[in-house]
Amino acid sequence: MRRQTRTVLLGVFAAAALSALAAGVWMTVAPTVALTAEEDTLPTPPEPPRLADGPDFDRCLTLLREDPEGARRFADAWDLLGGGEGARQCQALSLIALGEPALAAQRLEALASRSRAGNPARAAVYAQATQAWLMAGDANRAVGSATLALTLMPDDAEALTDRALALGITGRFREAIEDLDRALSLTPDRAEALVFRAAAYRQTDRVDFAMRDVTRALAIEPENAEALLERGILRQLRGDPGGAREDWERAIRLSPNSATADLAAQNLALNEAGPLRR
User: Is the peptide bond before 31 cis (omega within 30 degrees of 0)?
Assistant: First the structure.
């Protein structure tokens, strides 16, 4: 699903930082994130718009979450029986679950480009390709897929947020801010977009703007671990190591065994080490 996928990837851009206090800077890191069906991170279409509907498509989506290899076999058989675009979409999504997101992204792009479905459904498939490229570690291709989605649906706040994430991973923070400005004008209470924009503001040395956004995000979602991680970074930058430690510890409690928790723990370790050991 789109939100869960971005939440897992959030540490790559919005809330991933380590302290290098001796140099007076904060460095962004990009950890490798393992994405599995068990984490519920597949960009599956739980509701319309879809390229197909009916019991076969619903069956395939259920198998994607429970038995990815079974979903692939089902989709292959369905395709041979004339399953059309629905079968091919499910085939591509099964490849993501089976650890081949780059191949899945290529197939999703090709499917969206050739489909005779309406713009919303085709844009949704390009959005799935965007997330598959991000899972494959190819943010530049993700930007391209998201741009194709936005060509079809210019006011899609989800696609704008997806593209902003991809732009941020490639270091194009000002462009990311432009997309997030647009997304937030459409959906002002989108906490994840606020956290993304806070990180982008931090990367462009606008710490006050960043703190404003992360404060807003936490007012909307007080237990947003990624927002707490980002606020901890901002508090450290403002000379408040105690506040930073409090935020990072809470982020770990709220989201244990996650990339967010790992980054918070690294920040805590560096914070405790002191300047001479950094």
Answer: no
Q: Does residue 52 or residue 3 have the better pLDDT?
A: 52
Closest by CA position to 160, among listed 2, 40, 19, 8 = 2
pLDDT tens column, 230-251: 999 999 999 999 999 999 999 9
Global confidence as pTM: 0.82
Domains by residue range for the chain, with CATH: 36-182 (1.25.40.10)
Locus of tokens 């979602």: 221
At 234, the amino acid letter reads L
Continuous H helices in the chain: 2-13, 55-66, 68-80, 84-97, 101-114, 119-135, 139-152, 157-169, 173-186, 191-203, 207-220, 225-237, 241-254, 259-273
